[in-house]
Amino acid sequence: MTDVGTTFAGYRIEEEVGRGGMGLVYRATEIAADRRVALKVILPEYSADPSFRSRFEREARLAAQLAHPNIIPTFETGEHDGQLFLAMQFLEGVDLDTVIVRESRLHPRHAAPIIAQVAAALDAAHRQGLVHRDVKPANVLLTAGGEGIQAFLTDFGLSKLTSSKSGLTKTGVWVGTVDYSSPEQIQGRSVDARTDVYSLGCLLHQVLSGEVPFPKEREISKIVAHLSEPVPPISQRAPECPENEALDVIVRRAMAKDPAERYPSAGQLAVELTAVANRTPDPPQLSLDAPRVQETTVDRSAPTAG
């Protein structure tokens, strides 16, 4: 789509760092400000869709207004040569998906602060009426700082304005990733903060057990599982996980089929998780090891859309 070394909308393309269901992500330099950014360029087939364009432009502007220490800032959204794009702050780091693959699973004491930071980002977005709709490990960027591991939630440019009643949210595609999608997303019903709580519960299950909740081979089987199957207990998949039965209770509530039975906020999930994690013994230190360039909005798991 865009060659390394060329200029796109005032950004010098330096390296492709990831691909997602809706676009490519580049490490780039904003020439006027002389600052490094993560530049996502939306695929032509989406950029050319009038309904998608309207929703993207409206919601990306709203997402750019979010200011929170656990949300990667969006500097600019726009269009160039018929293609939509958004430019975000560039951070050196590693995504949570990579850490899970390397570590197999995380100790509750390592998982809790990461989940708490993601939850704080979600609560801030929800207060502004935005639902992320694609909370997953590949959209959580981790960096090592003086105060420990810092987590950043990415890809707010495809979030949904909860109060929207117009067709701006209907593009013929389902925004989300099937392994982390709530029943109401799958059924095309209205979504709210509790939709992200469900996805955060899926993420927590994977972090603690090493597997997504429903690791089926076929997407249709995953969809049926989200709609009708009970959540597999962490205590079965990771019997050595300390306090696994108490953690099962948290995950089951977060992933309740009925939104009314879930935690009303991501922050409340994080509070209960932290309390349980604090009862566990100290684990070995978790190192992010060789951090890689930011892979914002990259979909590693097979997405339904987004």
Describe this entry's structure for a reader:
This protein is of the alpha+beta class and about 300 residues long. The protein folds into 2 domains: about 5-90, Phosphorylase Kinase, domain 1; about 90-295, Transferase(Phosphotransferase), domain 1. It is built from 10 helices and 12 strands. The chain has helices at about 45, 50-65, 95-105, 110-125, 185, 195-210, 220-230, 235, 245-255, 265-275, and strands at about 5-10, 10-20, 25-30, 35-40, 75-80, 85-90, 90-95, 130, 140-145, 150-155, 160, 290-295. Strands 1-2-3-4-6-5 form a 6-stranded antiparallel beta sheet. Strands 10-9-7-12 form a 4-stranded antiparallel beta sheet. Strand 1 (about 5-10) and strand 2 form a beta hairpin. Helix 4 runs antiparallel to helix 6, helix 4 runs antiparallel to helix 10 (about 265-275) and helix 9 runs antiparallel to helix 10. The longest helix has 20 residues, at about 110-125. The protein is globular and about 55 Å long. The two termini are about 20 Å apart. The model is unreliable at about 165-170 and about 290-305 (pLDDT under 50).
